Amino acid sequence: MKHLSVLGKYFYKYRNRLLAGMFFIIASNYFAVLAPQVTGYVVNKVQLVLSGGTISSQDKEHDALVNLFINWSEERFEGTSFIALACITILILALLSGLFMFFMRQTLIVMSRHIEYDQKNEIFKHYQELDTNFYRMHNTGDLMNRISEDVSRVRMYTGPAVMYLANLAVRISLCTFFMAKKDWLLTIYVLAPLPILAVIIYYVNTIIHRRSEKIQGLLSDLTTNAQQSYSGIRVIKSYVQEKAMLGFFDRNSEAYKRNAIGLAKVESVYFPSMALMIGLSTLITVGIGSWQALNDPATKAGLIVEFVIYINMLTFPVSAIGWVASMIQRAAASQKRINEFLHTVPTVKDEHTDQKAKLTGTIHLRDVNFVYPHTGIHAVHDFSLEIRQGEKVLILGRTGSGKSTIAQLLLRFYDTTSGEIAINGQPINTVSLKQLRERISYVPQDVFLFSDTISDNIAFGITASTRVVSPETAATYAVIDREIRTFHNGYDTMIGERGVTLSGGQKQRISIARALMKDSDIIILDDCLSAVDAKTEHEITKNLNQYLGDKTAIIITHRIISSIEFDQVIVMSHGKILEQGKHESLLEKRGYYAELYRMQMAGLSDEELSKI
Ligand code: ATP
Ligand code: MG
Asked: Residue 543: what pLDDT?
């Protein structure tokens, strides 16, 4: 329960709705409990008319409003017209109770929807502040579940559970009050089975919940299984594994069916047992009430009728206790999971930053070391580098040598473990992340495109004020314009599941175009030419040469790019700089670079190049 206490701020925010909801609950129940009193009175009156007796003052122990109605109507109406008036009054009471119940749902359930909305936004905002390391440690499914399923479960607490609990408390208090006022002993007898009903329902509910959780899990396995079969269909077919996959699916499906049938059996016991308990309470009321009436002539039939109606009014709210209790338990478990994420603090902090820092100028990396936090891999060792403004730098090196890590450190996806990175003398961890990242165009190694149109993908994050070139120009630089124009809808073609499937090289070039559209001082391209052919690569680099101008550029590749004259070439190995210098000096060194160059010039295949 303590996990749910964080929701207090939302209840406070929507306190007016909450208070109004509570008022409507009281009003709805108040009018509801008046109806049995009027009914009881009418039954007594009919009984007395038939037996020739008179109404005693004890029979008038009703709520003040009911007494008022009785006194007023008795003076004016008699016989059938009195009964007709009483019926109309009961109808009006039911309508009033229903109307307030409508308002109650309108305020409390609507409040829970507002809270759900706020909570989703709070979680999403927090997700966006968390760093890359957090995303490495949690899978997408987990993140999705917390923002959708867990939030929905918490809403079941802020809405229905709160509403039913308050309703139950008010209804029990009012019914018990009026019942005890009439006959407290009979009240104790008839209420006795209700707690048993609540406990039974709680237990049955727990079983149902446990089973449905299991079924949910099995269903998710089944869906994942089916999904993998669809997405991996080419692998499955080429390895002729259709039959094996079908068997696998069949087993999953069988387990799901078995559990679902088990749940249906438990559920089928649920409602009859509830009906039994309600029947029992009614039976006790009628039995004991009649027995009392036989022994004590003061007991009237009206009392029994009134009590039977009260009991029927109580059964649904009481049976909801068990249901509400398990709803609260689930909400607490979900809120606990949400809190775990909300309490995660980003390791890359964005505070105490210098808003006036200028981010153009020399980039300095001084004795930078970096260890990936959750794996302990020491990816960058004592790395020092100076890149003056406007310089073009090529970073080469074997796979896993730390090239992408350097790019990510420059963007502050991670903070260095030791050492410092500064731009224009300003350490980058004293600059706001927004300021830093706005000045850098970055093409990550693992290209990501949104399920959107091509032109929106290229112009991602660009506003009219930050736009320097059109998507078409950027695409022309990235040598993808011509291909885009061959698509049916040109730049408005949708990408992804609802649109065209792009080749690896096309995706890379669109993400290059995206980076070229951005107005930035520094451009970092991480291995974004790996899936394009040599001719296209040459064309792109030639365009880049023209486009880059006085921008600082860091280009990470596995191949030497000859159409750009680099100011520095860095060859990395095991997180360190192995070779550094200009093209000519590196050729003279006769090291990795010279060998790579020689082989590339000799037109060696990629396989041969990989042997260097
Ligand atoms: P490639 O040429 O294959 O892209 P790279 O030079 O870019 O390689 P990095 O991605 O920087 O290499 O990786 C350097 C080292 O850090 C590798 O040993 C890799 O296993 C490790 N590494 C990379 N990313 C992560 C990560 N997110 N978490 C943990 N370790 C990582
Ligand atoms: Mg890399």
From this structure: 92
CA of 379 to the centre of ligand 2 (A): 11
> Checking DSSP bridges between strand 568-573 and strand 552-556, what pairing results, if any?
unpaired
Tokens of 320: 């909801």
**95 pLDDT exceeds 70?**
yes
Mean pLDDT of 305-330: 85
pLDDT of residue 269: 81
Spell out the domain ranges in the chain.
2-342, 357-439+554-612
**Cα–Cα distance for residue pair 9/166, rounded to 1 Å:** 19
CATH architecture of 2-342: Up-down Bundle (1.20)
- Name the CATH superfamily, with its identifier, for domain 357-439+554-612: P-loop containing nucleotide triphosphate hydrolases (3.40.50.300)
Q: H/E element holding 404?
A: helix 403-410
pLDDT tens string 12-35: 999 999 999 999 999 999 999 999
In the reported structure, the alpha carbon of residue 512 is separated from the centroid of ligand 2 by a whole-number distance in angstroms of 16
Q: How confident is the model at residue 56 (pLDDT cuts 50, 70, 90)?
A: low
DSSP H/E element including 394 = strand 392-397
Q: Which residues line ligand 1 (CB under 6 A)?
A: 136, 372, 375, 377, 379, 397, 399-405, 445, 527
Ligand nearest to the CA of 405: 1
* 400 CA from centroid of ligand 1 (Å): 5
**Residue 449 predicted with pLDDT over 80:** yes
pLDDT (average), residues 308-329: 85
Q: Which ligand 1 atom sits closest to the C-alpha of 398?
A: 2
Contact in structure between 382 and 369 (CB atoms under 8 Å)? yes
From residue 157, alpha-carbon distances to 148, 290, 333, 415, 483 in Å are 15, 42, 11, 40, 53
Q: How far are the Cα atoms of 244, 259, 417, 494 from residue 253, in angstroms, in the given order?
A: 14, 10, 49, 35
- The whole-number average pLDDT for the span 410-428 is 93
User: What is the arithmetic mean of pLDDT over 514-531?
Assistant: 91
Residue 36 in contact with residue 309, Cβ under 8 Å? yes
**Residue type for 141, please?**
G
Q: Hey, what are 314's tokens?
A: 């109580």
Closest C-alpha among 82, 109, 105, 119 to residue 8: 119
Nearest residue CA, atom 16 of ligand 1?
Answer: 379
Task: Return the structure tokens found at 173.
Answer: 């208090």
Nearest CA to ligand 1 atom 31: 372
To the nearest whole number, what is the mean pLDDT of the chain? 87
Length of the chain: 612
